[in-house]
Specification:
The complex is a heterodimer of chains A (about 190) and B (about 170).
Chain A (H helix, E strand, L loop, with lengths): L1 H13 L7 E3 L2 E6 L5 H10 L5 E9 L7 E9 L4 E9 L5 E3 L8 H12 L2 E3 L29 E3 L3 E3 L9 E2 L7 H4 L2 E2 L5
Parallel strand pairs in A: 2-5, 6-7
Antiparallel strand pairs in A: 1-2, 3-4, 4-5, 8-9, 10-11
Chain B lengths: L10 H4 L7 H10 L4 E5 L3 H9 L22 E5 L4 H13 L5 E5 H6 L20 E3 L6 H16 L3 H7 L1
Parallel strand pairs in B: 1-2, 2-3, 3-4
Helix pairs in contact in B: 2-6, 3-6
Classes of the chains: A alpha+beta (about 190), B alpha/beta (about 170).
Chain lengths: ~190, ~170
């Protein structure tokens, strides 16, 4: 399969930096050992391997584990319909990665969203500021230690927030219940 | 309790002259020309547009033009999710509307925050504005919005305008 060949070429070029390609559900994922080299890896992927489209950058909060952040890059080669996933880990003390806006310009807003929601900074980004929440909002909402209902804040003339009433907790469904009554979203605690 | 008189008109007796109270006449003019300020923020705005289009035709009820200028409108229809980021802008637009003004909160998100009980959504636009009519639905059908407009017209008709002036 094309993606596997491209992943193997990537591994051949960068050696120990890239892990063995893992396959799941027909998709290839490679792990990058050192997040600082992401710029070189992406530039090579775009120039030599034909991955000319950055589909998405997303981030994970591995709350309780070290390194805390995992940043996932989804690459696509439009000419040969080839998809590849690159994952890197970043520790919480550092919380910083080089940007890849010089490789794909679309990374600009993806990285701004990751900064806004998780607090991971991107070194060299042309304009790293919040994109969904407003400048001056003090928290990073998609971290696992941030409550769903939010925390009260106040910036006069800009915005305010209040805690949303959750009535005992998020209403969660049980997927795979036999009918709609069983699947109806109810307050669920981690025990059940 | 003061009695309101609707416009009582008997053409055999009065001919082309209608005798009524100022309150009733003024409120009748106001209720039949409520120009909406559409604060169309999300999916409810599509249903608002449908209510303004030809099949459901909000202008049958006097809302002839959707005036996007707050200075020229009477009722603000908040249609859609109000995020905290947008809330200051909505309040600012409401403040720029001139009296008398009313607010219709259209849909679940504008009424109570809807399905979004989260850090970014204002849990109901009535936390920042005085709402007159709430419309349930996600989104409410255009007929539901027209029903809300009719309820608002009832409310406008019964406003004791002259009483409040006399007190001041």
């Amino acid at each position: 399969m094309i993606a596997l060949e491209q992943a193997n070429k990537l591994k051949a070029k960068f050696g120990d930096l890239i892990s063995e390609p893992a396959e799941a559900h027909g998709e290839i994922t490679v792990q990058l050992a050192d997040a600082e080299r992401i710029g070189d890896v992406c530039a090579y992927a775009k120039a030599e391997l034909g991955f000319d489209y950055l589909v998405d950058i997303s981030s994970l909060d591995n709350y309780g584990e070290d390194p805390r952040w995992t940043v996932v890059y989804h690459l696509r080669g439009l000419a040969n319909h080839c998809e590849l996933r690159l994952k890197t880990n970043v520790s919480e003390e550092k919380s910083e990665l080089p940007t890849i806006t010089n490789v794909w310009r679309t990374a600009d807003w993806h990285e701004r969203e990751i900064y806004d929601m998780m607090g991971i900074r991107f070194r060299g980004h042309p304009d790293l500021r919040r994109i969904l929440m407003w400048d001056g909002y003090p928290y990073f909402p998609l971290r696992k230690d941030f409550p769903l209902g939010g925390k009260p804040t106040q910036i006069p003339d800009v915005a305010f927030t209040q805690t949303a009433p959750l009535e005992g907790g998020p209403f969660v469904t049980t997927p795979g219940g036999k009918d709609a009554v069983e699947r109806e979203p109810r307050v669920r605690t981690p025990e059940n | 309790m003061p009695t309101w008189s609707e416009i009582g008109y008997d053409s055999k007796i009065e001919g082309d002259v209608i005798v009524t109270r100022i309150d009733a006449a003024l409120n009748w003019f106001r209720k039949n020309s409520l120009w909406p300020m559409p604060m169309g923020l999300a999916c409810c705005a599509i249903e608002l547009m449908a209510a303004g289009a030809s099949r459901f035709d909000i202008s049958r009820f006097g809302s002839e033009v959707m005036r996007f200028s707050p200075r020229q409108s009477d009722v603000m229809i908040v249609a859609g999710t109000v995020t905290y980021k947008m809330a200051t802008a909505v309040k600012r637009i409401y403040d720029q509307m001139s009296e008398p003004k009313w607010v219709i909160a259209m849909g679940a998100c504008a009424s109570t925050g809807g399905m979004y009980r989260s850090y970014a959504v204002l849990q109901g636009v009535d936390r920042i504005l005085p709402v007159d009519v709430y419309v349930a639905g996600c989104p409410p059908r255009p007929e539901a919005l027209l029903d809300a407009l009719l309820k608002l017209q009832d409310k406008v008709q019964h406003e004791p305008f002259l009483e409040t002036l006399k007190k001041a």
